[in-house]
Write the structure tokens for this entry.
Amino acid sequence: MEIFQLLNGCTIFLRENPFRFCRRKQNKNRKSFVPTKQKTETKPQTTKNKTKTTSMNSPIKVSVKQLSESLSVSDTSQFVSVTYTSKSGRIVPEKSRIVLNTNVNLRRLYNKDLVKLKAYYATLQLQDKQAACKELIDSLEKSLAAGIGNNTDYTRRNSTTPVNKTIRLVANKDKTSSLEIVGVLRSKKVLEQGQYKTVNSSQKTILKNKIKNMLNLSSAKIRCLRLNSENIESIRFNKQQYALG
């Protein structure tokens, strides 16, 4: 109770102070209400396995002339995948899938290889390695001087005529002619293993092959594939597959 005394001597009794606010004491045993999040039932997502039916393009039957014309269209280098059966130098033919980079500048490749070989030759001290490397240098220089394919040391010299950077015409021994695809080997996957003929290579030839592999010479990766139905099973380029009919 509050007691106030006025100036005139009167006394006022107030039962409670109206300016005082009382805060209720919370009951500790009383649980406060906390809103809980309602659980929303999520339906399990059923993912249907959609089977992708990738229909492979069926090969288009073309003639050798039509195929050679299609290969000659591109002005830039292009990759060509060929399922090819190799018979030369083998007792049992070998079937493989070969990827070539075609329509390339071979003279530029030869010049780059010459720079590698001359730099490597300057580091050699053993005479047998020097002789092997010198032969590789001389061979590339002769090819650049006489024209690639017309090297005097080449067994098929003067028998090839380039149609373009991808196709060349070859004069065969039986006085017939055939076409070949020319390109730089990028990959090879053997599908059916063949058997090579036994060849007794000289020590110099073995050293030259080692140098080619070690320096990764592009000129050593040039491949010429006969453009006929006997050797080529199928050929793929520009997202289309062809077969010789």
User: Anything to note?
Assistant: The longest helix spans residues 127-146.
